[in-house]
Design a protein that fits this description.
The structure is a homodimer.
Chain A: E1 14-21, H1 25-38, H2 50-54, E2 60-66, E3 72-79, H3 88-96, E4 105-111, H4 114-119, H5 126-134, E5 141-146, H6 153-165, E6 170-173, H7 185-198, E7 204-206, E8 208-209, H8 216-225, E9 230-233, H9 235-238, H10 240-249, E10 253-256, E11 271-272, H11 274-284, E12 289-293, H12 303-314, E13 324-328, H13 336-343, E14 348-350, H14 353-356, H15 362-373
Parallel strand pairs in A: 4-11, 5-6, 5-14, 6-7, 8-9, 9-10, 10-12, 12-13
Antiparallel strand pairs in A: 1-3, 1-4, 2-3
Helix pairs in contact in A: 6-7, 6-15, 11-12
Chain lengths: ~375, ~375
């Protein structure tokens, strides 16, 4: 661990930007010191040994700035990368461990710094790798969801066949498809993979991985044994580092699902911005695409929040590959052009239920979806 | 899966109570149906096959009630236990997966129902088991935290020795102590365990487990190899089912830490009540004690929220053992009597930094803490 005195460079430190709501600048400075302490040494200042101060282990307040909005402040705090132990759980802990339990602190930006960007590998495939697998080099990619939960395996496999006949790029399980009695994981994966193979299409099938801690790797092996190339997984349900481990260990495309993340967005004044959680942190653990609820669908995300997620997924961060944003949540066939205008062609479009309710049937609706994308080829 | 028609008993279903904020009763009924759909089939109603309806797989709205507060409604929805696949990640998914991404829906109560209460074993030791290990059968138990992060292993071990000399029941790592270069996990655990053994006290040492997915079991084995009987672990950092797995697999006391949970409490209208998350769900995955930020400390929890957490940890739920509430977060020696009045003697009191800053030194301050508890023997 290199020695850093108080005049040391901040280049290598993890930099977190908070928007804090409080009365005045002086209080904002106190809040800043509190956060810096709480997220590292969590200890009365008088009890911090000299060695810790010398090594800059306590978070360091870099800036405290009043915003134009009364009562709102931007605070930047940097953290020594060694505080994270270079592990995902401890990155999360430093970022939003104890302060998650406070109020009026919102994380609006995260720059992990060079040593964390190079320690964590980010997405294995990213946009270019997934395009290569799908054989689609310029147009947006198209994804749909296998549902509903509670169907028989045969019925799901038949739907997968119909979607594949329509030429969809990716079929993912609905995120509620686990290892239930009505569609056991291993049976479902096998039958759906076989049904798609029958269609002779290039469609990829990505099963939902939400098994128990001691079952996850068995499920991953089942996916690989069935010749599949990717999975759907929700970091909040199985643990962020579980996703990082799978991404680094197995040659699988990772579709990240936002299940259970939303509590962190509900208060405008506290939590994390969706771009930090569904963008930077999902990419950190290897998401080649990150699904999020687009504005205008069934969920309350704003257009700005969605664009920010897309930026966090695609903007340069160390040597990490850019990932696909995947706007979803009630998108319709009629939205396709608008979605591509908003997000650009490096987007994984996800139409779920809406392809199932078209009067022309699943295969024809899927063909229409794929047809709408040919203009971007 | 037993057949259930629409007149079927609800006894065995998981029952979730939501407080919803909306304009009127009619809209509340629509919201209720939306939640029931979103958390299970997530599919346009017209596309739900008859077999799924027949088997009552879609969440079932049981009651929608207007509260005395304008715009607030209680909604109860029951879920077929098979929807959860009897796995923790999917329980979380059904509970707060997609609706976490919405707004104005707060989960205020959770009754898992008989079949889930018996499938999941809950705490291995609970209050009586941990009392047995500590040899303290009536009084509150006493816990402290080893800190600050960034200290040398020798300095942490020396502090552990001082706390143990003072006769504390449990020393836990500060939750930021991971596997960092300045206090590597294996070295720290060994040296601190040795230091405590030297003191001849019965003090238990519970190291923080926040290792990588592929490192967790190695850390657990290290804890056991050093003769230790418990761990500190944060379900949100390593995954809820990781905790369930450890609790069921290894004979270790589980201290649950609330790191990263707080985003879900920040909006009064959306998220989960602390009692559901830090009470019921922590107990579900095996927490023998659950640490939470008490009112009046450094965090904004109310007294009512803290009492509700304690109730959720100790009230009968199937055959689960009751767990210790562990109020913390800036508690002082002077609070001890008040804390016992509020929470009763079946409480694990956690004083961290405050024992370190007493002028009489750590051992004397700890003795004073233990002395204050003898009146409850």
């Amino acid at each position: 661990m290199p020695y850093e005195n108080s005049a040391g460079t901040t280049f290598d430190r993890m930099l977190v930007t908070y928007r804090v709501t409080t009365s005045d600048l002086q209080t904002a400075r106190i809040v800043a010191s509190d956060i810096a302490n709480e997220q590292t040494v969590e200890c009365p200042p008088a009890c911090i040994p000299e060695e810790i101060l010398e090594n800059a282990i306590v978070g360091r307040v870099e800036t405290v700035k009043q915003l134009d909005i009364p009562g709102k402040f931007h605070i930047e705090i940097s953290y020594h990368p060694h505080v994270t132990g270079f592990s995902v759980p401890q990155v999360l802990n430093v970022l939003f461990g104890n302060i998650s339990l406070k109020n009026n602190v919102r994380i609006i930006d995260l720059n992990l710094g060079e040593s964390l960007y190079s320690h964590f590998l980010g997405p294995r495939y990213g946009i270019s790798g997934l395009r290569e697998i799908c054989g689609a080099h310029t147009r947006p990619l198209a994804c749909t969801a296998l549902k509903p939960l509670g169907s028989s395996v045969e019925s799901l496999a038949h739907k997968a066949y119909q979607f594949a006949l329509g030429g969809i790029d990716i079929i993912k399980d609905d995120h509620g498809l686990a290892d239930q009695s009505f569609h056991p994981f291993a049976q479902r994966v096998k039958k759906c993979a076989e049904a798609i193979a029958l269609s002779k299409s290039k469609t990829l099938y990505m099963p939902m991985i939400s098994g128990r801690f001691d079952q996850i790797e068995e499920q991953i092996k089942c996916v690989i044994d069935n010749g599949l190339k990717g999975i759907l997984i929700a970091p909040m349900l199985v643990g962020f580092d579980t996703v990082r481990y799978i991404s680094q260990t197995y040659p699988l495309v990772i579709l990240g699902h936002p299940s259970w993340t939303g509590g962190n967005f509900a208060s405008p004044d506290h939590g994390l911005d969706p771009a930090v959680l569904l963008g930077t942190l999902f990419r950190l653990v290897g998401a080649d695409a990150s699904i999020f609820p687009n504005s205008g669908g069934r969920f309350p995300f704003t257009q700005q929040e969605c664009s920010d997620i897309a930026d966090a997924l695609r903007n340069p961060k160390g040597a990490w590959k850019p990932s696909f944003p995947s706007p979803a949540g009630g998108m319709q066939l009629s939205n396709v052009t608008g979605l591509v205008e908003q997000f650009g062609p490096d987007t994984l479009l996800l139409l779920g239920g809406s392809l199932m309710e078209q009067p022309q049937g699943i295969t024809a609706a899927t063909q229409e979806f794929m047809q709408a994308l040919t203009q971007y080829e």
